[in-house]
Design a protein that fits this description.
Layout (H helix, E strand, L loop, with lengths): L1 H13 L2 H23 L5 H27 L13 H9 L3 H12 L15 E2 L4 E2 L5 E3 L4 E3 L4 E3 L4 E3 L4 H31 L19 H32 L3 H5 L3 E2 L2 E2 L8 H9 L39 E6 L2 E6 L2 H6 L10 E7 L5 E7 L3
Antiparallel strand pairs: 1-2, 3-4, 5-6, 7-8, 9-10, 11-12
Helix pairs in contact: 2-3, 2-7, 3-6, 4-5, 6-7
GO cellular component, one term: membrane
Enzyme class: transferase
InterPro entries: Palmitoyltrfase_DHHC, PFA4/ZDH16/20/ERF2-like
């Protein structure tokens, strides 16, 4: 027990190395840009003020979204998805997988769970001992199940999921903006330092040439580092924007979610605007701020096609579940996200075809098919 505990503590300590590295690079870039470039290199006071104001806006938004991604605790499934005591004891005593599945199906009838494993079985986590909600996965690094898990990011030392995915996308956007602004404003001084001042050893530079001091090394490296990070972040940002537009997670992009009728990679796609609203919210004034505005509760998600599950009982959608976001516990109905996103929009130009079907248990199900924009 003791060696494993020490090893776990060492792993937790080492996991902060990428975060420390990023913050050291950012601190150096702040010093190089503000002090070495704007104060020591740029001679024009008006140009200095403009550069400093825009730079600090980008810097604040970048660091704000970055640390929101780090400190936002991943949302975990509530106790509602844990097996009751009697069923749990019966599940642990049972050795046959078929009998264990029957126990899970019995409990899952009262839960809003519609996705399955690849073999069609109920998704159950043996480590957390709970039935996984839709789009929930177990993170081996965090060692617990995460709602709408996307991936575990070592650069933020956190699991990116339902509670902080918006912050992660904004972090990529503002870090890319931060890098491109630095590269664009440093470029002219980079060229001057790189070309003209190299001749200082053989001939005199023009009188208006930049001073030959240690600032030129900071400016040269600042451009290279900003350009390198911009190129790498741009590809990652483009990929996640595509995921947002398709309403998929990184896990679902590689392995399509499985419903009762089989795998469907577009099962959660509602059209571009509603897909965007699920991550950034329905109020555009909050889209570009690292404040929580995502729709839903992390347990249930509206689907493009709602199918009647013969093995799924009538779920009491009025029962409340608890969702923890940024340390705050919110109580809301499990079907809030469905009711909010699938409400009628009189101004929508999306064409909808609705039909009514009768389930075996007499429950009326409205099937809505939306054309993907």
């Amino acid at each position: 027990m003791a060696p494993s505990h020490v090893l776990r503590c060492c792993q937790r300590g080492l996991s902060w190395i990428p975060v420390i590295f990023i913050n050291l690079v950012v601190c150096w870039s702040y010093y190089a840009y503000v002090v070495e470039l704007c104060i020591y290199t740029i001679p024009n006071a008006e140009e200095q003020v403009i550069y400093l104001v825009v730079f600090h806006v980008c810097f604040v938004m970048f660091m704000w979204s970055y640390w929101k991604t780090i400190v936002s605790k991943p949302s975990n499934p509530s106790k509602e998805f844990c097996l009751p005591k009697a069923e749990k004891e019966q599940y642990e005593k049972e050795e046959r997988p078929e009998a264990q599945q029957e126990i899970l199906k019995k409990v899952a009838r009262n839960l809003p769970v519609y996705t399955r494993t690849g073999s069609g079985a109920i998704r159950y986590c043996d480590l957390c001992q709970l039935i996984k909600p839709d789009r929930c996965h177990h993170c081996s690094t965090c060692d617990h199940c995460v709602l709408k898990m996307d991936h575990h990011c070592p650069w933020v030392n956190n699991c990116v999921g339902f509670s902080n995915y918006k912050f992660f996308v904004l972090f990529l956007a503002y870090s890319m903006l931060y890098c491109v602004f630095i590269a664009a404003t440093v470029l002219q001084y980079f060229i001057k330092f790189w070309t003209l001042c190299r001749r200082r050893s053989v001939e005199h530079c023009p009188e208006n040439q930049l001073p030959d001091n240690h600032a030129k090394f900071h400016v040269l490296f600042l451009f290279f580092v900003a350009a390198m990070f911009f190129i790498s972040i741009m590809s990652l940002f483009s990929y996640h924007i595509w995921l947002v537009a398709k309403n998929r997670t990184t896990i679902e992009a590689f392995r399509a979610p499985v419903f009762r009728n089989g795998p469907d990679k577009n099962g959660f796609t509602l059209g571009f605007r509603k897909n965007l609203a699920q991550v950034f919210g329905d109020q555009k004034k909050h889209w570009f701020l690292p404040v929580y505005s995502s729709l839903g509760d992390g347990y249930t998600f509206p689907t493009r096609l709602v199918n009647t599950d013969s093995e799924q009982g009538i779920v009491d959608h009025q029962s409340s579940s608890k969702c923890s976001v940024d340390g705050q516990t919110n109580s809301r109905p499990l079907s809030d996200s469905q009711n909010h996103l699938l409400s009628n929009d009189v101004h929508s130009d999306e064409q909808k075809d609705c039909s009514v079907a009768k389930a075996d248990n007499g429950l009326t199900v409205i099937v809505t098919v939306e054309s993907e924009s």
